[in-house]
Specification:
Structural class: mainly alpha
Low-confidence stretches: none
Oligomer: single chain
Strand content: under 5%
Shape: elongated
Radius of gyration: 21 Å
Largest sheet: none
Number of strands: 0
Number of domains: 1
Helix content: 40-55%
Number of helices: 2
CATH superfamily: Erythroid Transcription Factor GATA-1, subunit A
Length: 63
């Protein structure tokens, strides 16, 4: 397996920093999350609208 930060081969067994190759790469990754270089994407708008339509349809059915 390759380190997600630097791409070097990573030792998996007995590696406290896995999936990273070192504490340095692990901390670089953490810093990217803290600095919001990495983000979790938001749901797409059309998915939200579709969910609202299903809820409205269910409410009409239940009435």
């Amino acid at each position: 397996m390759k380190c997600p930060t630097c791409g070097e081969p990573t030792k998996w067994k007995d590696n406290p920093d896995r999936p990273f190759c070192s504490e340095r790469c692990r901390m670089i990754d953490l810093g990217n999350w803290v600095n919001e270089t990495y983000t979790v994407s938001l749901p797409l708008t059309d998915i939200d609208e579709s969910a609202e339509q299903r809820i409205e349809s269910q409410e009409e059915f239940d009435a």
